[in-house]
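Table 4 source record.
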Amino acid sequence: MPKHKYKVGQAVDFSPGRWGLPASSREYEVLRLLPFEGGDLMYRIKSAAETFERVARESELAERAGML
């Protein structure tokens, strides 16, 4: 089973796919690790600029510049 690349609490950049709801910010925090679905690991993420949480595919996330 594949391992999640990002950890809970980590800051990530989010770039939704073509059909996703546009993001109001690129910076999100990983809230939860979700199971593998549809060929990708999934995450629950949240931006301080939004009042709701999102579910994102690992392929839609990138490590924040300067973050470890």
